[in-house]
Amino acid sequence: MASNATIFKATVQISDMDRRYYENHALTLARHPSETDERMMVRLLAFVLHADETLSFGRGLSSEEEPALWHKDLTGAIDLWIEVGQPDEKTIRQACGRAKEVCIYTYGGRGADQWWQKNLATLERLNNLAVMNLPPDGSRTLAQLAQPSMQLQCTIQEGQIWMTDGENNAHIELTTLKGTSAPFGK
Predict the structure, then answer these.
(1) Is 70 helix (H, G, I), strand (E, B) or coil?
(2) Fewer CB under 10 Å: which end of the chain, C or N?
(3) Alpha helices of the chain — where are they, by DSSP H?
């Protein structure tokens, strides 16, 4: 955890009908001083989409050696490396060399589109890389759910994502910019 990080607690009830995953998770998120609520909530969304009892938050912004989230097997080998935002190409290539699968969740509208166009040629060659994009309204709506203590319910069905805190709702439909030819499997 980064020093001076702001701590957020989230209890998330996940009903992922696409993966047949139904669990509750009590999470602690450390928001780096340079991180926005929007980015933190995209990290939380990435957790929800890949939820597993062994998926954990990395140091992300405070360490170039760790991703936003990762899943390691019992030997310490990295099965899944998840980044949020617009990581540089070198970081992505290194992650693809270290992990069986790498997923990137971009957001931010035009900036994310420009990042994708700039890196498309290089990233298309990485077989174990998947890139998904959140529409600007989806990530902004997610950011509105950020509270120091959160009770969230998330439903995923047919690629549609609904997250609510009981009063506010976020509906998200990710766009897959690049799928992986080496799907994550345990």
Answers:
(1) strand
(2) C
(3) 37-50, 89-98, 110-123, 136-143
Q: What does pTM read for this prediction?
A: 0.92
pLDDT digits (tens, 9 = 90+) for 5-39: 899 999 999 999 999 999 999 999 999 888 999 99
Q: What is the pLDDT of residue 61?
A: 60
Total number of residues shown for the chain: 186
What domains can you pick out in the chain, each with its CATH number?
6-178 (3.10.640.10)
Q: What is the DSSP letter of 184?
A: -
User: Which residues, at least 6 apart from 162, have a Cβ–Cβ distance to it below 8 Å?
Assistant: 154, 155, 156, 169, 170, 171, 172
Query: Nearest CA to 135 among 45, 36, 19, 18?
Result: 45
Q: Are strands 69-72 and 78-84 parallel, antiparallel or unpaired?
A: antiparallel
